[in-house]
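Reviewers of the previous submission asked for a worked example of the structure-prediction workflow described in the proposal, so we include one complete record here. The input consisted solely of the amino acid sequence. No template or homolog information was supplied to the procedure at any stage.
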Amino acid sequence: RCNRMVPMGATFVRISASLPLRLRTAFGGIAALLCVLAGFPATGQELPPDEVRAVIEGTWELVEWHVEGRILRPPEMNGRWMVHDGIVMATRHRQSEDGYESTAGYGTYSWGATTWTYGYDRSEDRLGSSPTETTLRVSEIPMRLFEITQHGDLLILEDRDSTLRWEYDISGKTFLLLGRDRQPIRKYRRID
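From that input alone, the workflow returned the following structure tokens.
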């Protein structure tokens, strides 16, 4: 029989499997209640300030896509980036003289006190010269950790290798996604 761990702030309390089920359930509930009363998150997850989460969580519309030195805008491209309740979803499509690309993906995210981590459980990408001449690639994108910093009205999320960076313009309600050497990839505008 397994022992069950109940989080209490940064510590876990082991509930013995030899106890009767009713007693284990009651003890687990009491431990969770004590966490709430003590002000600890029941999951042990530390969160950044509400203002930081409010900037990142929401629904975003794709307004620019940087491809081969060109900046595409609607109607050549469109898309959404959604970050809500621990779930991320992305859709983006472009069709121009540079070719065709269509992506749909979903995954999860979590918070640390000064970090944001996300990844895709599934991402489907169609690439080709036109919608009828494409190759489909299906992949899982592992969880990736981003450090959160703020410089005035700019909220920044950047991975340790500086391969991906999000620059949120708080007052402008936009963010720019940058790749290696801070090359622009896409720009989004908040719509909710």
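The first helix runs from residue 21 to 38. We consider this example representative of the routine output the project will generate in years two and three.
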